Amino acid sequence: MNLQERINAFVKLGEFLSQFSNEVIQKKDNIEHNDMFFDGFKHQLKLAEEHNGWFTKENMAFALQGWADSLTPEKLNTWLNAYQFNSVTPKKVAIIMAGNIPLVGFHDFLAVLISGHQVIVKQSSNDKHLLPYLAKYLEFVEPQFKGKMTFTEEKLTDFDAVIATGSDNTARYFEYYFKGKPSIIRNNRNSVAVLTGNETEEDLKNLSEDIFRYYGLGCRNVSKLYVPKGYKFDGFFQGIYHWHDIVNKAKYANNYDYNKAVYLMSEFDMLENGFFMIKEDESYASPIATLFYEYYDSEAALNEKLEADSEKIQCIVAKGFAKNEIAFGATQKPELWDYADSVDSVEFLLAI
């Protein structure tokens, strides 16, 4: 199977996913094998939501929209034109996936297969319904993929390289366990936003998407805010208010109530608006329904601090602050070439 055949298969998968990428699921004409797979994938989405309360219809639709938008000939060719695939010797690459947001491991899955390797997937129990079904669809649109995708719940044994994502604790275990293999090991990272006080209401409204999408469970979600001394939070709370219905989701509301009670009993200072809290704290990782913030004296000093802590940070959201910043509202819409932890997984896969 050559590169173009692999690209064509993923383009067809993107077309299939486009039917599920809004709240009204709509069957389209001219989608290959649709009669066989459309209703089945609807059922998988239902199972995923029943199994994991964080996987709401809205969040799964958002994730599927992102992949439908990415799996186009234009996006795939722009991404892959930077690499040479001629001399790839197929290897078995294991992927240990996280399960914090829907299809969070799909980029690794795509990168392994598009590079010409075989993939062995060990999924998180929190996100186990969608990817195997999509893998089966890939086998039908491109039969040469048969035998190149394996899903397992057993201990990984027969593989040549590994991409593993987990917590800081599991990452240390992964580094020890996989020390004899080529590997990419990912651990906890969080995203930050830097405000100057000059943001428009639209900027702050867009920032709320970076905070609340997927309930803040992704490493690309903003969990920490840096604001200048004397910053007034009125505009910030106004900008995020349109997300107030999030508190009607039971799992989110339970976390909001619990964390609010902890803060009140501990007599911590915090600001809240009935569905969200902000608390001054030096940590990068904040609990659900909470955003930590810190004041800064100078942009230069803050830039220096964030550079020193770069291995803890996934995204910096800002406007005119840093060269590698991401625009407000864009953290959960990464391009194919926006690699987790800034580690080029395709380059890694072509070198093993």
TrEMBL record:
Signal peptide: none annotated. InterPro entries: Ald_DH/histidinol_DH, CoA_reduct_LuxC. Keywords: NADP. GO terms for biological process: bioluminescence. The keyword Chaperone does not apply. GO terms for molecular function: acyl-CoA dehydrogenase activity. This is Acyl-CoA reductase LuxC.
